[in-house]
Recover the amino acids of this structure.
C-alpha cells in the first residue's frame, strides 16, 4: 500500500507544478471560465475541484458562458435526457468559437466514459478541444497544457480508476457548507443503472484523510458537511483496515465547531442497525435521510438487483422512525422498469402512501446501453409509463404538503444560506430536515444558525419568522 501512497503524493506534486507553470503563462491574459454541471452531487463536487484548478491557473469565473474563454461541461448519463441536453449545447458552442478564437471547450464526466459518446464527439463535434472522464479530473491543468503545446485535440479517458489523488485545490460553492467525498464508484450493479460502468469500482478514502479534510473545512468556517458516495452505507468495506460508516460518523461527530452532518446516498440493503443507532444518538446528524427505494414491487426489486424487498424497506423505515420519529425521509422512484405491470405500480403507490415521504424524486425509466435492463424483454410502452408517472406525482405532492403543514407553529433551527432570489427583504435557509424556509432577515444572517417559527406551509417550502433568543 505504501507505494500507492507515494504515487498519489507524487501525482499531486506534479499537478501543482503544472498549475504554477500555466499560471506563469496565462495569469496576465485575464481569461475567464464557465462550468456547467449536470447530474448528481458527486458531479457538483467534482466541479468545485475543477474550479479550484482553473482559478489557481489564473482563470476567473465568467458571469455568462458567452464571455468565457474556457467552457467546461461536466456531464451526466444516468438518463437519456441528460445526454441530449449536452449535445444540444455543444452544437450551439460552435458559434461562440467562431467569435472568440481563444475559446477552449472541454467536456468531462460520466457521459465521456462511454465509447459511443467519444466516437460521436470525435466525428461530429470537432470544435471540442479537451475530453476527459471521471477518473482523471485532477489532471485538468496537464490536459490544458497538452492542448496548448501540441495544438491537437486532447482525449484522455481511463477505463479504470487510478489511486485517489488527495489535496488538490477546491473552490467551495458556499463558505459555510461543504461536500466531502468519502468514497468513489459503485459495486452494486442495479440492472437499470449506468453509474458503476462510468464511475468504476467502489473505493473508500482513508478515514484520516476524511477527518483531516473536515477539520480543515471547519477551521475555514464550514458548519455543515455533506458526506458523498454512491452508497455511503458500505463505506470502509474495501479498506485495508475495514471500518463501518457508523464508526466514521461517530468520529466526525467529535469534531468541534461542526454543527450539521448530512450524507448521501444510503442504499437500503446496507443500512445497518449500528448506523440506525448512531443516527438515533447523534446530536449533529441532520433530521433527514435520503433512502431510494426505486420500486414498491418485490418482484421488480429482484429484477433490478436491489437486494431488498418491499417488506424489508418498510421494516427499515419503522426502525428509523423508532429512533428519530420526525425524520424527513426522501427517496428516488423509477416508473416503467421493464415488465412493470399495473399491479407492480400499485405496490409503488402503496409504499409512497405508507411511508409519507417529505419528497420523492421520480424518474421515467431510461434505457441505458450496456446495462442488463436494456436487454430485458417487455419494455413498457411510453404512453403507459407517462400515465403512471403522472399518477405517481399526484400521489407524492399531497404527502409532502401534509408533512410541511405539520411544521406550522413549531420553532426550528435554520442554517441561513442566501438572500431570497425574489424578495430582497427575505433570506432563505434550511431546516435540519433539509426543508427550505424563507423569512424576513438581512444578509448578515447568512452562514448563521437561527431559530425560526414556521407560519405557513406550501408543498415544497415554508414561510417563517425569526424568533429572538
Ligand atoms: N447511488 C444512488 C443513486 C444514483 S443515480 C442510489 O443507489 O441510490 C440517482 C437515481 O437515478 C437513482 O436512485 C434512480 O432512481 C435513478 N436512475 C438511475 N438509473 C436510471 C435509469 N436508467 N432510468 C431512470 N432513472 C434512473
Ligand atoms: Fe446505480 Fe445502484 Fe450503484 Fe446507486 S447503488 S449508483 S442505483 S448501481
Ligand atoms: Fe452522477 Fe449522473 Fe454520473 S447521476 S454519478 S453524474 S451518471
Amino acid at each position: 500500500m505504501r507505494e500507492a501512497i507515494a504515487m498519489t503524493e507524487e501525482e499531486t506534486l506534479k499537478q501543482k507544478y503544472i498549475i504554477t507553470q500555466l499560471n506563469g503563462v496565462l495569469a496576465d491574459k485575464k481569461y475567464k471560465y464557465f462550468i456547467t454541471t449536470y447530474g448528481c452531487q458527486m458531479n457538483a463536487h467534482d466541479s468545485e475541484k475543477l474550479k479550484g484548478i482553473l482559478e489557481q491557473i489564473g482563470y476567473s469565473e465568467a458571469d455568462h458562458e458567452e464571455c468565457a474563454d474556457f467552457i467546461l461541461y461536466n456531464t451526466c448519463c444516468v438518463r437519456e435526457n441528460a445526454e441530449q441536453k449536452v449535445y444540444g449545447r455543444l452544437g450551439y458552442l460552435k458559434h461562440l468559437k467562431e467569435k472568440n478564437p481563444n475559446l477552449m471547450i472541454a467536456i468531462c464526466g460520466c457521459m465521456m466514459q462511454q465509447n459511443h459518446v467519444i466516437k460521436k464527439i470525435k466525428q461530429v463535434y470537432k470544435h471540442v478541444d479537451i475530453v476527459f472522464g471521471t477518473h482523471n479530473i485532477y489532471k485538468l491543468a496537464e490536459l490544458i497544457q497538452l492542448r496548448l503545446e501540441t495544438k491537437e485535440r486532447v482525449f484522455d479517458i481511463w477505463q479504470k480508476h487510478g489511486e485517489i489523488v488527495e489535496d488538490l485545490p477546491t473552490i467551495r460553492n458556499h463558505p459555510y457548507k461543504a461536500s466531502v467525498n468519502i468514497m468513489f464508484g459503485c459495486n452494486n450493479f442495479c440492472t437499470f443503472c449506468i453509474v458503476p460502468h462510468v464511475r468504476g469500482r467502489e473505493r473508500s478514502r482513508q478515514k484520516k484523510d476524511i477527518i483531516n479534510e473536515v477539520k480543515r473545512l471547519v477551521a475555514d468556517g464550514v458548519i455543515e458537511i455533506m458526506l458523498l458516495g454512491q452508497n455511503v452505507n458500505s463505506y470502509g468495506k474495501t479498506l485495508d483496515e475495514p471500518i463501518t460508516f457508523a464508526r466514521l460518523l461517530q468520529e466526525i461527530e467529535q469534531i468541534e465547531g461542526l454543527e450539521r452532518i448530512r450524507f448521501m446516498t444510503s442504499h437500503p440493503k446496507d443500512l445497518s442497525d449500528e448506523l440506525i443507532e448512531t443516527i438515533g444518538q447523534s446530536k449533529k446528524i441532520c433530521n433527514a435521510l435520503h433512502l431510494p427505494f426505486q420500486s414498491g414491487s418485490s418482484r421488480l426489486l429482484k429484477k433490478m438487483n436491489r437486494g431488498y424487498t418491499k417488506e424489508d424497506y418498510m421494516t427499515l423505515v419503522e426502525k428509523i422512525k423508532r429512533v428519530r420519529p420526525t425524520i424527513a425521509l426522501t427517496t428516488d422512484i423509477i416508473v416503467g422498469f421493464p415488465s412493470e405491470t399495473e399491479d407492480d405500480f400499485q405496490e409503488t403507490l402503496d409504499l409512497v402512501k405508507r411511508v409519507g415521504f417529505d419528497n420523492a424524486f421520480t424518474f421515467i425509466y431510461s434505457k441505458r446501453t450496456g446495462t442488463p435492463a436494456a436487454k430485458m424483454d417487455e419494455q413498457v410502452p411510453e404512453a403507459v409509463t407517462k400515465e403512471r408517472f403522472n399518477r405517481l406525482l399526484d400521489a407524492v405532492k399531497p404527502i409532502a404538503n401534509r408533512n410541511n403543514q405539520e411544521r406550522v407553529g413549531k420553532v426550528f433551527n435554520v442554517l441561513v444560506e442566501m438572500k431570497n432570489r425574489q424578495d430582497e427583504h427575505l433570506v432563505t435557509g434550511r431546516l435540519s430536515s433539509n426543508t427550505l424556509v424563507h423569512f424576513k432577515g438581512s444578509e448578515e444572517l447568512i452562514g448563521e444558525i437561527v431559530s425560526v417559527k414556521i407560519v405557513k406551509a406550501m408543498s415544497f417550502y415554508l414561510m417563517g419568522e425569526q424568533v429572538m433568543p
Summary: DSSP finds 13 helices and 19 strands in the chain. The radius of gyration is 23 Å.
